[in-house]
Amino acid sequence: MSEERPARPSDIARAALEAARAASAARPAPTRRRVAGPRRSWTGAGPGADDPQPLGRLVESLVTEQDWSERTRVGSVFGRWSAIVGADIAEHCRPETLTEGELLVVAESTAWATQLRLLAPSILGKLRAQVGGDVVTRLRVVGPTAPSWKKGPRSVRGRGPRDTYG
């Protein structure tokens, strides 16, 4: 019988190292994990398209993409009325409708309606400068209307509400 030599510590270490190398070689190569979402490209010192943006810039790009520019200009006539015509004028009138370039403005009295008709060229100039020239082309000013006695879709011509009293 052959005598076995006692294992030395260096032999044990070599055997463990060889076993670890064999196990590592048998394992598949690790793959790089990819984070979900678009691949980020570095833009340098300036902000990129996927960096946080100011809200105004995002709204402008959305309006341009969706082609809402005409609607926003029409809305700005009504929303910024007092800033466009001035607080004094806006206190006595309000824009009612905007159809086919004609802005209907309702004044609080007939005197203000007359004054606004005289100021119509300067108001149109302010609207062209602030909103754009093709949004409002004509200005129609009306005074307050009297209350209507008509109730419902049909009415009878005659003397009005006095007819029922004799």
Structure description:
Residues 1-55, 146-166 are annotated as: Disordered. InterPro entries: DciA-like (IPR007922). It holds the Pfam family DciA. This is DUF721 domain-containing protein. Residues 13-29 have a biased composition (Low complexity). With 166 residues, the protein is α+β, with helices and mostly antiparallel strands. The protein is built from six helices and three strands; from the N terminus they run H-H-H-H-H-E-E-H-E. It has helices at residues 9-26, 55-66, 69-79, 81-85, 87-90, 110-130, and strands at residues 93-99, 102-107, 138-142. Strands 1-2-3 form a three-stranded mixed β-sheet, covered by helices on one side. Strand 2, helix 6 and strand 3 form a beta-alpha-beta unit. The radius of gyration is 40 Å and the shape is rod-shaped. The chain starts with 8 loop residues before the first helix and ends in a 24-residue tail after the last strand. The model has no long low-confidence stretch (mean pLDDT 82).
Summarize the helices and strands and which ones pair or pack.
Elements: H1 9-26, H2 55-66, H3 69-79, H4 81-85, H5 87-90, E1 93-99, E2 102-107, H6 110-130, E3 138-142
Parallel strand pairs: 2-3
Antiparallel strand pairs: 1-2
Rg (C-alpha, Å): 40 Å
SSE string, helix = H, strand = E? HHHHHEEHE
- Assess the beta-strand content as a share of residues: 5-15%
Q: Structural class of the secondary structure composition? A: alpha+beta
Q: What helical percentage do the residues reach?
A: 40-55%
Find the count of extended strands (DSSP E, 2+ residues): 3
Main sheet: strands, sense, barrel: 3 strands, mixed
Low-confidence stretches: none
Helix count equals: 6
Strand order of the largest sheet: 1-2-3
Terminal-residue CA separation? 145 Å
Shape: rod-shaped
Mean pLDDT: 82
